Each structure stands twice: as C-alpha cells, then as structure tokens.
Amino acid sequence: MYDPSITQPMRDELTTLGVQELRTPEQVDAFLSDKTGTSLIVVNSVCGCAAGMARPGLRQALQNDVRPDRVASVFAGVDKEATARARSYFDQLSPSSPSFALFKDGACVHFIPRYRIEGRDANALASDLRSAFESFCSVVARV
For residues 22 and 138, what is the distance between their CA atoms, to the nearest angstrom? Predict the structure, then answer.
C-alpha cells in the first residue's frame, strides 16, 4: 500500500477533472450498473507513464466536445479490491495499469492498455482517446 500523502495528488489530478473516484468493489458495481450511454473507467497508477502520459492525456481528451457520459477511476496498487472488480468488467483483457476502458450500453467497446500508453506523449494518447470518444460516444456530455 502506498502512503496516502504520496497518492492523494495523483487522485486529485483526476477528481479535479470531474472524474468520480471508485474505491470499493461496491462503488465499481454501482457505477457500471448504469448501462445506458457511455462510461470510461481509468485505471490510475503511481508509475511515470500515468504521470507523464495517462493523466495529462485524459485531461486533454476531456476538453473534446464529444466525451463519455460518465468517467470514473480506480487506483491500481492502492484500492486493490476496487481495481480487481473494475478489471473483471474488461472482457478478459489482461490487467494493465494505467489503462482506459470505454463502455457503451454496458459493453467494453474500447480498451487502451499500458503498452499503448508508455513511450508516447500525452498528445498522442489524447488523440487516441478523442478518436474512441468520437466513435462510441453519441451524446455531447460534460464531465
């Protein structure tokens, strides 16, 4: 378990964007029980690619006019049970952090694993996220 004083700024980086934090398996289930529209689950992490690419890329992507209806995060290595529950919804994809899972009408329709995040810059990741949003998010939403 990481010291909360170290991870809180990493959490805050997402919650200040309006991303809902899911800290328990029950919160994950409640969030994903709404199968209407689109939902994005962000698997947050303490690693450098989360800090340098994933969180900044998400920040840029959420400035797009077309966005998921709901956005939430789980924190790998911190909220372990919540992260495991979220990953159980990812259609048998390998665990990966950081990562992004986009759901439409309850089905995981797009997944960006760590290997598609690390070694790239935030702009490239933001472009990938915006493309996914434009492909699957039919309603202009505000997070």
Answer: 25
CA distance 68 to 64: 10
Phi, psi of 29 (to 5 degrees): -60, -45
Domains of the chain: 4-136 (3.40.30.10)
What single string gives the DSSP state of each residue in the chain? ---HHHHHHHHHHHHTTTPEE--SHHHHHHHHH--SSEEEEEEE-SSHHIIIIIHHHHHHHTTSSS--SEEEEEETTTSHHHHHHHHHTSTTPPP-SSEEEEEETTEEEEEE-GGGTTTS-HHHHHHHHHHHHHHH--S----
pTM for the whole thing?
0.93
Catalytic site positions = 47, 49
Query: Residues 60-72: pLDDT tens digits?
Result: 999 999 999 999 9
